[in-house]
Amino acid sequence: MSSPRELEAAEYLEKHKIIELMDNLTSMLFFYRPGGTFDSILDPSHQGFITYSQYKEGKTTIMLQRL
Description:
Elements: H1 4-15, H2 18-32, H3 37-42, H4 52-61
């Protein structure tokens, strides 16, 4: 059962489309691939890309999955 605070937070995220914003920003990071240490965090195996399953796991890990 969700608390009133959790429901309020979920409504805020939905109303302001925060999840969609974060999804788009994350996708842009993967597409434009900025240089620096951030690449090594996103691509720990240094293949030059990540798989879709790695992308989904990363989103879940940083709590960006849809509510």
